[in-house]
TrEMBL record:
Gene3D superfamilies: P-loop containing nucleotide triphosphate hydrolases, Tetratricopeptide repeat domain, Winged helix-like DNA-binding domain superfamily/Winged helix DNA-binding domain. Residues 3-101 bind DNA. Keywords: DNA-binding. This is AAA family ATPase. GO terms for biological process: phosphorelay signal transduction system; regulation of DNA-templated transcription. One of its GO terms (molecular function) is ATP binding. It comes from Rhizobium lusitanum. Residues 3-101 form the OmpR/PhoB-type domain. It comes from the Bacteria.
Length: 926
């Protein structure tokens, strides 16, 4: 069978079957991303405009540039493009995208061997028995009401049914199904953090719920909230907010009790049907009942000797009736089937029947039935199995065999038996296995965990085990910090983000009685790698403040912990809307630096120095940032050199030291390109490849490499989107993509970047960057410019009285800028934009007084400074302004000479706003 396909590089694109291959291997690509790739490939190297992509891929819909960028980023990742490479997908700023490699239309005589990968699904962990009708009916009801609660006693199968429903209808949700286990949480104020973790969302707000709602409101998703009963009031408030803000998000809740939320439909999950008492039934009829079928399936899987037969059918039926048809209780019983005499099968369970008959209240019956069954199953464990079982109950979530050995304290010879014991506990349904092959993890269901912890208390082991668990969490956080490297945010979150409940539990235990406050201080300090990455800023700030106070009162304070906590607190102050960017931020970094030196921690000293530099730069104190070089000179080693180069690269750029900035940035990028696992001095709060390349983009732009600069700025945005790192994304947008594209290609080309900056900062509660977006809007929108000339208090509140934001807003405002903005921007020593500020002063002088001689003084000063700094773009701008006024005074030859000296310096950017203006001015004076 002959089939047409498009070939580019090592790839083959089969559009008709929606398959992409690389060297014969399937490359999974999402639906919209595949359509975008097909559109670019068909054009074979021609630019496809944004509007054309929208028309072909999103017909009849408004295409938001942020949406397109997410799909482009995903596509680049699928194609295996590296951040330092040009790659196949090329962004032409202000125009669109093209496929750089020529795509050839070919014919394949044989069909491709690769098959499309099925979309990821959420499925039940075990086969669902006897619930088919319930699943179908509940799926229909969820689609109709959009908020469905599955209620019922513990062990009746609420979670299993929720997963079965999700599996049934997952194709209806273009943005997927999100499963949130609230059973691991202890407090209502932790719900937002868990949602952020599941949604891979960072929020710097004290209350991240608003960020969660913003993320959900434009999605078509199913949200499963599991085990909600202990947090019902808070969950009710959340689901009602979701229904109001995100109409295309359906919510499926599992809870022992209804939420009583507005619009909630409640379905009680019934127990499995059991053979009725007193009716004469054949063995075949008995085995057809779902409860019996479940027992037989599980018992047969666990025991080689168990066989269902006419002789034991009645005993099994009686057992299932006495267990009320509760699936989990039946599984416990089935796990013991092989230990019983088949001839007297029912007698083996007689010990639990009196406990079942003790229950008199119908509402408590099934809950007590399950608990009694757990107690009975626990009583049959060997002594060593019982020890392991109750000690493992300290885990809040999943754990590995290695973690089980560490926490239970059963190392050495006993540790070699732990795998067999875990297998036995899994077989007895006291522990659930999650995963496959070498990646199996274990966990306890909530009610079993509660029972195990009670037994832990009864045996006097609780304090020891919770201490061991806390020590395990310390090691886990140290491992997480060591594993952190640039560009791996999503992968890192998948591995360590799920451990947040364990860390929370250990911190709360440590600060309780009879906990250990010093372990709590250590956990809190190390927790920055987790809390700050996920973005649980409000929660973490509260934890830090408590731990700092405890450490302050300690007779032997942990100075290393102080260093980490003060640095984290400084970062929180920097990004929080509650605090000004001033003494609070630098003060905390200075405290961190002192503590790091006291503790002898070079990594934390580097973090503090780097943080101080960033704070100085944002305040416009570029020379002060450069003075930190002497602090770097004290330190040795590759990490110190890398952080010094990175930090001083930023500092020298903004200070206007072109040559030194270029040297430092190149040196800082070199180890990142050559060794992506290089440590980043303990800083988990940014993606350094993005911020460093954003500064490089600015450097390229200033030196006249306009096309390279805008392309690199665009790639920085894409890299941050792929990494799902909002801080890096805002940095790339605010310091590079928007200003550089605006200055190069004009307002319309840059508008999507400003929209994305506003959206990202708002969604993630990054109020510092939201201020940048609002300030940019104020100086680039014609209406806002007029408004701010009359009343500049609003703009002043956004940009403060100096700093790098003031410099950017002055440059972007250009000749339409407001006088006082430019004056504030010039309150620093000559830096990266001082030549342009001088030019703007000349334009403002013309507008204010019409004095051409005075204006030309500013233009010449700017031209001379730009020439000495080597900033060809400012040089071109100053020359164009000077030539225009010279021509107006009749000095056309000098005007032509000024431009002719500068324009040949450019090898690219010929269609930029500045070069077109210079070309037009040169033509006018010839």
């Amino acid at each position: 069978m002959t089939e047409e396909y498009l070939s580019f590089g090592p790839f083959r694109l089969f559009a008709s079957r929606r398959i992409l291959e690389k060297n014969g291997q399937l490359v999974p690509v999402g639906g919209r991303a595949f359509d975008v790739l097909t559109t670019l490939a068909v054009k074979r190297g021609s630019v496809v405009t944004l509007s054309e992509i929208g028309r072909l891929v999103w017909p009849g819909m408004h295409l938001d540039v942020g949406t397109l960028r997410v799909h482009i980023a995903a596509l680049r990742k699928a194609l295996g493009e590296q951040q330092s490479e040009r790659g196949f997908i090329v962004n032409v700023p202000g125009k669109g995208y093209l496929l750089a490699s020529d795509a050839m239309l070919r014919r394949d005589p044989g069909a491709s061997l690769a098959q499309p990968a099925p979309p990821p699904r959420i499925s039940p962990r075990t086969r669902v028995i006897g619930r088919e009708a319930f699943t179908r009916a509940a799926s229909i009801q969820l689609a109709a009401t959009h908020l469905l609660t599955l209620s019922g006693p513990a062990g009746v199968g609420k979670t299993t049914m929720a997963l079965a429903i999700a599996d049934e209808i997952s194709d209806n949700y273009a943005d997927g199904v999100h499963f949130v286990d609230l059973g691991l949480l202890q407090k209502a104020d932790q719900i937002a953090g868990e949602l952020c973790s599941v949604l891979r969302l960072s929020s710097f707000s004290d209350n991240p719920i608003d960020s969660v709602l913003s993320r959900l409101e434009d999605r078509t998703s199913l949200l499963i909230l599991d085990n909600c009963e202990h947090l019902a009031p808070a969950v009710r408030v959340f689901v009602e907010a979701v229904r109001k803000r995100a109409a295309t998000v359906d919510i499926l809740v599992t809870s022992r009790e209804p939420l009583h939320a507005e619009g909630e439909l409640i379905r009680s999950v019934p127990p499995l049907k059991t053979p009725p008492l007193g009716e004469p039934l054949t063995a075949e009829e008995i085995f057809s009942f779902p409860a019996v079928e479940l027992f037989v399936e599980r018992a047969s899987a666990q025991s080689e000797v168990f066989r269902p037969s006419a002789e034991n059918a009645q005993a099994i039926a009686e057992l299932c009736r006495n267990l009320e048809g509760i699936p989990l209780a039946i599984e416990f019983a089935a796990a013991r089937a092989g230990d019983l005499d088949l001839g007297r099968f029912g007698e083996g369970f007689e010990a639990i029947y009196p406990m079942l008959r003790e229950v008199r209240l119908p509402g408590e019956l099934r809950h007590r039935t399950l608990r009694n069954t757990i107690s009975w199953s626990y009583g049959l464990l060997t002594g060593f199995e019982g020890v392991v079982f109750r000690r493992l109950s300290v885990f809040s979530g999943d754990f590995t065999v290695e973690a089980a050995c560490d926490v239970t304290g059963l190392g050495g010879d006993l540790g070699r038996e732990i795998g067999a014991i875990l297998a036995s506990l899994i077989a007895k349904s006291l522990i659930t296995a999650v995963g496959k092959g070498c990646f199996i993890r274990c966990r306890m269901l909530n009610m079993i965990r509660e029972f195990g912890r009670e037994k832990l208390d009864e045996n006097g082991e609780a304090v020891l085990m919770y201490r061991r668990h806390a020590e395990f969490c310390v090691s886990l956080l140290e491992e997480a910090a060591a594993a952190w490297s640039d560009g791996v945010t999503s992968t890192w979150l998948e591995q360590y983000g799920s451990k947040l409940p364990e860390v929370r539990q250990s911190i709360e235990w440590a600060f309780s009685s009879p906990g250990d406050e010093q372990i709590g201080v250590t956990l809190t300090a190390l927790g920055s790698v987790l809390f700050m990455t996920i973005g649980l800023i409000g929660e973490y700030r509260t934890l830090i403040e408590r731990a700092l106070e405890v450490n302050r009162r300690s007779p032997a304070p942990d100075r290393l912990a102080d260093a980490k906590m003060h640095a984290a607190l400084a970062t929180i102050y920097h990004h929080s809307h509650d605090f000004p960017l001033g003494d609070e931020t630098t003060g905390q970094f200075e405290l961190s630096l002192k503590a790091a030196r006291d503790a002898g921690s070079i990594a934390d000293e580097l973090r503090a120095i780097s943080g101080l530099s960033a704070a100085y730069l944002f305040r416009g104190e570029h020379e002060k940032a450069l003075t930190l070089q002497r602090d770097f000179d004290r330190l040795e080693g590759p990490d110190a050199r890398h952080v010094a180069n990175r930090t001083l690269g930023h500092s020298n750029h903004y200070a206007g030291n072109r040559v030194e900035a270029e040297r430092r940035i190149a040196a800082a990028l070199h180890p990142l390109d050559g060794n992506p696992q290089i440590k980043n001095a303990g800083s988990q709060f940014d993606q350094r490849q993005v911020t460093l390349r954003s500064t490089l983009a600015n450097h390229l732009w200033l030196t006249g490499k306009l096309d390279q600069a805008t392309l690199l700025a665009s790639r920085c945005v894409d890299d941050a989107l792929v990494a799902n790192h909002p801080l890096s994304l805002c940095h790339a947008l605010g310091t590079a993509a928007f200003p550089l594209v605006y200055l190069t290609n004009g307002p319309s080309a840059a508008a999507p970047y400003l929209a994305l900056l506003t959206e990202t900062a708002s969604r993630h509660a990054l109020y510092r960057w939201l201020r940048w977006a609002e300030a940019y809007e104020d100086v680039t929108s014609p209406d806002a410019i007029v408004r701010n000339r009359n009343d500049h208090t609003g703009l002043l509140s956004k940009i403060g009285i100096g700093g790098v934001l003031t410099e950017y807003t002055a440059v972007l405002g250009g000749e339409m800028a407001i006088d006082w903005v430019v004056r504030h921007a010039m309150n620093t020593t000559p830096g990266w934009c001082y030549a342009e500020l001088l030019r703007i002063c000349g334009e403002l002088e013309l507008r204010r007084s019409g004095d051409k001689a005075e204006a030309m003084k500013f233009f010449r000063q700017g031209l001379n400074l730009a020439t000495s700094q080597g900033y060809d773009t400012w040089r071109l701008r100053c020359a164009t302004s000077l030539a225009r006024v010279l021509a107006e005074t009749g000095a056309t030859f000098e005007a032509a000479t000024v431009l002719s000296d500068v324009m040949p310096l450019f090898a690219e950017g010929f269609e930029s706003v500045d070069f077109r203006a210079a070309r037009a001015q040169l033509a006018a004076v010839h």
